[in-house]
Amino acid sequence: MKKDVTSKYVRPSREEKIFYEVCVIFLVALFVIPQYFGVPFPMFDFTLLRIMIIAVLLMVIADSEKKKSLVNIIMNKRYSYVLIPYIIVLLYTMVLRADINALLNPLLELVGFYLCIYIIKDIIGIEKAIKYIIIFCYILTISGVIEYVLGRSPFSYLETIGGIYTGAFVRSGNYRIMGPCNHSLGYGLLLISIAPIVCIDMENREINVLKRPILFGLFAMNIFLTGSRSTLAVFIIEIILLFLFSSKINKKKCILFLFVFVVALAVFLVVFHSTGIAQYILLQITSLVDEVFDTDFAVAYGASKQALDSSSNYREQLKYIFTLDWLNPVLGIGRKRAFSAEINGSFIKSVDDFYIAEYIRYSYTGLIAYVVFIMYFVINILKKCFKEKSGIIRAVLIGAVCYLINLKWVDSLQTLKYLYILFALYAVIYDEEETLKDRKVGQAGRGRYERIAVKAVKSKYIK
User: Fold this and answer.
1) How many CB atoms lie within 10 A of CB 172?
2) CA–CA separation, 388 vs 397, rounded Å?
3) 39 beta partners
4) Of the residues 9, 170, 230, 244, which has the maximum number of CB atoms within 10 A of its CB?
5) According to DSSP H, which parts of 35-124 are helical?
6) Are 37 and 47 in contact (CB under 8 A)?
7) Angstrom distance (rounded) from CA 179 to CA 174
């Protein structure tokens, strides 16, 4: 159970207060701060997140109780055993390809994942974790609107490490926001993964799309402004899933709100049809329609037909990467070497499909091992979701599944940490329950108290 550092009867020590504050800064660095903010070094850039990972680890190692708890999370949980094959692939890829980043990059993300579990479980708790996430979401989405007005990400002013921030993205004459990410597609992945969290009603332990209508509206606006068709399509799927997992009364509210919203949007588009914002909204909607139904409506709103056709052809060629003879099926190229290939007359040098990109980096062995790790969480979350009416678990499931769907059209772009935040929320809720249930006790009385403890844990988060 998490430590009560805010109790009115037990004052935490100065060291505990400092550790709590360091953990909060870690979460800020994990969630909000861009990768290009930190201290540059020739071989290894110390981003703020990496600095905070080191700081938290050092403080944990210095305390025997904290160290024991973190080691238990790493060594004694089922998901750690499922992860072992992937770690083995990372290790032999690093050695055989002489590429330290083949291990270091994904390993640091996984270290962040375990620290996230530890901090939520032992330091801040589920409720505060979600409150912090909500605060971060307000910061990001409000910044996204400001970014569109400025034509530049406010986070770009934090650039201290060169070579990561890529500058402005423009498509069909429209600026595409990117938030703290390195690409607008990465920001879309961030928004998709976290959007369901803002729909959690902690008081009633259920999904309520209109729980925070202003914040959810900001999410929708930011997703539009990324200019990503795949992100918009997945967001629509996400809204449908959130609606299906809502209670009957919340569904009725959603239907009424949707009707009013559609009417208001239609009136706005008719009245302000010639304005830039209306044209942009119509461009996004028609681009999505064109992608699904193979039409050309978006051309009337400034889209380049040649660019859209080129993008579609490029994606069609990606599947042939699996047939390239020079790619070793058991040893990937790692992360140091850039990928490029000529396929059916098209020159491919970037891969906007995480699963294919993972195959290139770590071959079939790495791809399968990582998919098994992901599916372990998804399947277990799915089981819990249908077994128990928990708003948190349903939100986690929807965010994770929609994020993984979106990866079919984009690479992860350093956003896997947001998927890991979702997995960490799930792991914390059920870790204590499963630990108590699995623990063998010799005395019936002790077993009775443990069953009571399990019930208390479940009743706190699960309806």
Assistant:
1) 18
2) 13
3) 46
4) 230
5) 48-61, 64-75, 78-96, 101-118
6) yes
7) 16
